Amino acid sequence: MDVSSKSGHGADSMWQTELIVHPSDLEIGHFIIRLDIPWLETPFPLQGVLVDSKKTRDWFIEHCQWVVIDYSRSPNKLRPSTNRVSQSAVLAAHQADPNHPINALRGSRLDAESVGAALKAYSLLDTQSRRLIKSFADRGAIEVKTAEKVVGELSGYLERNLAAMIWLTRIKDRDDYTAQHSINCAILALGLAHVLEWSTERVERAGLAALLHDLGNVNLDLAILNKPGRLTVAEYQHVKTHTTIGYQLLSDEPDVHPDIARVALEHHERPDGLGYPDGKQGDEIDPLSLLVSVVDVYDAVTSQRVYRPARSHHDALGILWRGRGRKFDRNMVETFIHFMGWVAPGTLVRLSNGDLAIVEETNIVHGFYPIVRKLIPGNVGYRAGERIDLSELKDAEGKPRVKIAEVLPDGAQGVKVKSLLVSALEE
Fold first, then answer.
1. In sequence order, what are the residues at sequence separation of 6 or more whose Cβ sits closer than 8 angstroms to the Cβ of residue 371?
2. What would the pLDDT profile of 35-49 be if each residue is shown by its tens digit?
């Protein structure tokens, strides 16, 4: 997938010079500038590495899920062969258009006004989502109009406060996973469907389907659903029934569109046929289900669960990238990754000088060198420090002195990202 920073339409545009590939697609002579793992965990210099031997290539195949090649610095200009020329061309054209929805988060920033509005909106909609799920669990009936209202309001808030709303999906500070997961998936599904340029009706249907996709969980044994250890075969079979349970429950509601019920059934189906409950593959799976499966996995991976810790934004994107074309729809994965960005506003990062920071604003021209808020360690945790534009920190030769070395999960190192960022923006 080409990686755009909206630097323009000319021959030197980033979307024309940078490409994300699986390490097995690397050739001798490719120059690598980004990885899915911290540079500090590699034997290579932070400024990038030339693939100059089979040994170097094999190292990346063994250790990485994806890498980014810079063709302007690569002696070998050969791009990996693909049978997706038309699809890739369309995606590349979108990435080069600064006004296309796929680039809406690039160059965006978090400010006090947008974050404040998003926090209030998220809290209200989260409460409504919890009530919706509890009402269904208690009475067995879906309040369809309430669900539609939640999605409609989400869509409106996204349009006005996109960066802040997307950021809030990564702040996992609630104890009710099902409710928070549902609303996060609805936000992400609305964003991805909009980027894919679906009709307004279909965009809102995607949001509603994502909000309700895990409804079958309300009928599962909570002891099994929240079991901290590995599930037995029988327990896993029980958990998998949430797809058929959700489908039946939604199918019984006359006001629920059939496509939404189908998503509850199919969101664990996979293009390679190894999903469940029916082992559907390829075109047998509805596109709406394929979309929800992408955002479902992203939010699940970045969430703290009783049986595993939360993983970072990069980890989640790496899992999606590695599974593209097999576990997930290729075009939706590549579109979602470009839309979300490798470093988005609100991301907790470790800089190459060892400092922790929170990304406050992405840089359109220098995509990998955003504006960050440095974190200062103290006796009772961290406090927000100075605001730094990484693209302006250069050495005598004009090369960047500090870059992002690692993207961390929210909450890592005990950092309370939300409170720190809110207090910093209010200064």
1. 109, 359, 360, 361, 362, 363, 387, 388, 389, 390
2. 767 776 788 877 789
